[in-house]
Amino acid sequence: MKAFIRDNTILIENFELKSERAIFEAIVEEFKLNNDIIIKREIMGPSEDIVSAEYNSGEIFLYYDVDYELCPIRCSDSNIQQVFEIVNKVINNI
Hints:
The protein has helices at 20-33, 80-92; strands spanning 2-5, 9-13, 37-44, 48-55, 58-65, 69-70, 73-75. By secondary structure, the chain is of the alpha+beta class. The longest helix is centred in the first third of the chain and has 14 residues, at 20-33.
C-alpha cells in the first residue's frame, strides 16, 4: 500500500487489496484524535460517507463510496503535506 500526492490530492494505491473501509475509518479516527483538525461535517449515508474538515487554514475532503471505495483525498496547499503524513502513518499501521 502506498500513498502519493498529485495536484493537492492524496491518492492511495492498494495493490495488497486491504479493506479500504478500514483505511477510511482509521483516517477519520486519526483526524478526530488530532486537536488541530476540525471536523466540519460528517455524512455517513447508505451509499457514501463524506468527511469535510479544516486543518492549518485549509480544507480536507475525505470520501468513501460503497461502489468505488476510498476516493482521492482532496486538500489545500496549506495542509497537503501534513495530511499526507497522517495518511502515510495510518496506511503503514494497517
